[in-house]
Design goal:
This is MFS transporter. By secondary structure, this protein is mainly alpha-helical. It contains 13 helices and no strands.
Length: about 325
């Protein structure tokens, strides 16, 4: 693998590790420091996602017409500055709920731009024959961060408070920007101004999805499943951290440790698909996940609640 790839890999690891160390930081701050209720925590979680839904498709064509590395660096800097405003306001005693919402929206918009640019930029620093190896390294790093980040972040919150994980998240974005600055690859020629963001781009995206039967079904499935998961996540934060009084480390453990299942699923996916077929594997996995969730929600909170939630999340 080339030196530019390793700088890109370092940037990815830094930003991903920081993001998952800061998992749940905003709900923690809203619940423990600002005494926010379920509606406020849910609105905080939804604000950034709503912006992402509005910007995802039109941002794609815009990023396509611009150099990818500057877009990624700018997104990292914007996310870093936005997040650092939270500990600054907290230290001055002026942190409020509206600021958390604004920072969440800004971070989500920058994240959309970064994700759109990074997917294309990998092809500029990695030879076509090495793309599979490169993506495998990115996936391994991502699942490691997802599995360990919430656990370590929860422990840090228990010892030092929720603000420290926000600072760790901002530091990850700063390190990512510095690593991207170290890459020396001649970019391909693009239009200086790039294509403008138009409503027609959004319409074309919907037409493309609806024209393909399989893609349309997968899209609708993703919408339904993701909506149900995201509808319960902020409420679970209120339930576990507020009503049940779980410490932050236990909350992080419940969401981080089950992601070890991601490693198992990644290893088994190819073999299961080759033996049973893609559609059957998807259907069985979906049914098993639904059954596991039903078991969790039928349980009464008790000493074994954490292990039960871990089993549910692993699906």
């Amino acid at each position: 693998m080339s030196r530019p790839f390793w700088w890109l890999y370092i940037a990815f690891v830094a930003s991903t590790a920081g993001t998952w160390l800061g998992f749940g930081a905003f709900p923690l701050i809203a619940i423990e420091e600002l005494s926010s209720g379920p509606a406020a925590v849910s609105a905080l979680a939804a604000a950034g996602l709503a912006v992402g839904a509005l910007l995802a498709l039109p941002l794609g064509p815009w990023v396509e017409g611009h150099r990818k590395r500057p877009v990624m660096i700018a997104a990292d800097v914007v996310r870093c500055v936005a997040l650092l405003s939270v500990p600054a306001a907290y230290g001055l005693g002026h942190l409020g709920y509206p600021q958390l919402v604004v920072v969440s929206v800004i971070a989500a918009a920058a994240n959309i731009a970064f994700t759109a640019a990074s997917g294309a930029y990998v092809k500029q620093v990695v030879e076509p024959g090495n793309l599979l190896r490169a993506n495998a390294r990115f996936e391994s790093a991502a699942w490691t961060a997802i599995a360990l980040g919430p656990v370590l972040g929860g422990a840090a919150v228990s010892l030092l408070g929720p603000i420290v994980t926000v600072e760790a998240n901002a530091a990850g974005f700063l390190l990512s920007a510095l690593a991207l600055l170290a890459i020396r690859v001649r970019p391909p020629k693009t239009r200086a101004d790039g294509p403008p963001m138009r409503a027609s781009g959004l319409i074309d995206g919907w037409r493309l999805i609806n024209a393909d039967r399989s893609l349309r079904r997968l899209f609708h499935n993703t919408i339904v499943v993701s909506a149900l998961i995201m509808a319960t996540e902020p409420l679970l934060a209120v339930l576990l951290l507020g009503d049940l009084g779980w410490p932050a480390w236990q909350y992080g453990l419940a969401f981080g440790l089950p992601c070890v299942g991601g490693f198992v699923g990644a290893q088994l996916a190819g073999r299961l698909e080759a033996r049973y077929g893609r559609e059957r594997v998807l259907l069985v996995a979906e049914c098993c996940g639904s059954s596991a969730r039903s078991v969790w929600f039928s349980l009464r909170p008790g000493p074994r609640a954490c292990s039960s939630l871990c089993s549910w999340n692993s699906w």
